Amino acid sequence: MKAVEERDKPAVAAFLRSSIWSFIHADYDEASALQWPGYLARNRAGRLVGVLGCGLDRPPVASVLYAALDSWEQPGPLFHRLLTAHEADLSRAGAQELVFIGYVPWLVRILRRQGFTTRTTIISYARWDGPIPDAGSAQVRLRPAAPEDAETAAGIDIQAFEPMWRYPPALHAAMIARLPYYRIAEWEGLPVGYASGDIVLGQGQIIRLAVRPAWQGRGIGRRLLADALEFFAQQGVRPVTLNTQADNLRSRRLYEAFGFERVNVEVPALVKPLPPAL
Q1: Residue 127 belongs to what H/E stretch?
Q2: pLDDT of residue 276
Q3: pLDDT(26) > 80
Q4: What is the rounded distance in angstroms from the CA atom of residue 37 to the CA atom of residue 62?
């Protein structure tokens, strides 16, 4: 077993694409995921049989960003060695927890055996059609996000979410550059919220919607949600989907008021506390 070096990345990328047991975090593409630290394992013949990449992308919370295993190997012992190496590095870097979020049954089973437990469950909603019931507050000004808004959006995350749900500025910057929909909400010139969305396989997806806690309850979230739905309607795509935590009752009430319906998809958010560095 060894740390992934720059010269190893083409082989690791090929292994991620070819392995039956493979995972890349939904917030990253292959290239950006591989920018984070990883470990790989080879068998005695020198063949690549396992990779795991984890990064401190939401300090003090680290994330499992990519993983793949050879189907012929015993996954438990191999993954334990890869994970143990990462845990030591992450603890030294100041990480307090390691998080995995994804609908990947084989990896969920392995992580549970490695001490991960469910913090909450991610549930999905979809909206197929119908009028938009509420335009939200008329005092809110929405504008397209600019590259310099990445720091602002990350600051909103710090106020609105616990660490495991926050996006770092670099991830916001990548989303602003890539996504067809990313709006900043301003109240008298102050950025107070944002929403982002994408079109995937002909369907709309609301990726994020966040409002500073001190400004919640003023119709800002409704304004952002209505605008996102208007955008997708103009693009002629449906349904529009989104995800939220099962215990986020306030957001669930908002989405249901706008005609979103639960769909039968649940994804566990797994967490493992990391010991302090020695």
Answers
A1: strand 117-127
A2: 84
A3: yes
A4: 11
Provide the token pair at 145.
């996000």
CATH number of 2-119: 3.40.630.30
- According to the CATH classification, is domain 129-238 in 3.40.630.30? yes
Domains of the chain: which residue ranges? 2-119, 129-238
Which residues, 6+ apart, have CB-to-CB distance to 277 below 8 Å? 88, 91, 92, 94
Each residue's pLDDT tens digit, 40-87: 999 888 899 999 999 999 989 999 999 999 876 677 788 999 999 999
Q: How far apart are CA 171 and CA 28, in angstroms?
A: 8
Q: Which residues contact 61 (CB under 8 A, 6 or more apart)?
A: 95, 96, 97, 98, 99, 163, 164, 166
In order of 13, 116, 257, the CA distances from 65 in angstroms are: 13, 15, 34
Alpha-carbon dihedral of residues 194, 198, 202, 204, nearest 10 degrees?
Answer: -20
Residue 164: its pLDDT value, please?
92
CA-CA distance, 163 to 58, in Å (whole number)? 6
> One-letter amino acid identity for 54?
C
Whether 129-238 and 2-119 are alike in CATH topology: the answer is yes
Amino acid type, 256: E
The rounded distance, in Å, linking the Cα atoms of 256 and 261 is 6
Residue where the block lists tokens 């290239």: 31
3-class DSSP state of 157: helix
